[in-house]
Design a protein that fits this description.
It is found in: Cytoplasm. The protein is an alpha+beta fold. Helices cover about 15% and strands about 40% of the residues. The strands form two sheets. Strands 1, 2, 4, 7 and 8 form a five-stranded antiparallel beta sheet that branches. A five-stranded mixed beta sheet has the order 3-10-9-5-6. The longest helix is centred in the N-terminal third of the chain and has 11 residues.
């Protein structure tokens, strides 16, 4: 009887999820150190971090977004923004992004994680135009630290299509954020977005 009561209970909301355990690579590697197969498994999951590569430990940031790229499915050149410097963020804010209506495109993000495991990284995008607003949240995943950048492409096997039609053309304001499972915002930036004919 008790099993049926639990089965009928409403599920906890996804927003209440909290990643368990430690993000410290050293603590993770030293736990169960006597188990050879578990040690090898951890080394496989953590890659270079298992051998002590924690990225640039002199830089206090946990997440460094090296490059934000918008790739197109035609001859249109990619739009590339270097976001690991203030100058790169200022360039994006000043020049913005211009996309032709109906164009097929995808996002490619190159980023490094430093110091410890970054759990539950999400890419949040909010686009506004005269009272209309659209928000999207994309789970990127959990990543170990290391000097080599991770690359995330969305969508992986397909293309997004820019809106088309007179109602959708014009200027927007876009804001992107990278947030981890603890709710900490690692990077946030805004830029003008234009959908053209």
């Amino acid at each position: 009887m008790a099993a049926n009561v639990e089965a009928d209970a409403p599920a906890a909301p996804a927003a209440a999820y909290s990643a368990a355990g430690t993000n410290d690579v050293g603590a993770l590697m030293s736990a169960d150190a006597e188990d050879e197969s578990l040690r090898k498994y951890k080394e496989q999951l953590l890659g270079a971090a298992a051998k002590g590569d924690l990225g640039d430990t002199s830089d206090p940031r946990k997440l460094i977004v090296v490059e934000f790229r918008i790739a197109f499915n035609d001859a249109t050149p990619d739009l590339v923004f270097n976001l690991d410097t203030l100058a790169g963020k200022e360039k994006l804010k000043k020049t913005g992004v211009s996309i032709k209506e109906g164009a097929e495109y995808k996002f490619k993000l190159s980023f490094r994680v430093q110091h410890e495991i970054l759990a539950g990284l999400k890419f949040c995008n909010k686009t506004k135009k005269m009272g209309m607003s659209q928000s999207d949240e994309l789970m990127i995943g959990s990543y170990p630290p290391g000097a080599e950048p991770h690359v995330f492409e969305f969508p992986r096997n397909d293309w997004m299509e820019a809106p088309k039609g007179m109602m959708y053309r014009g200027s927007y304001t876009a804001t992107d954020k990278f947030v981890d499972s603890d709710g900490k915002t690692h990077l946030e930036y805004s830029y003008p977005l234009k959908v053209t004919k």
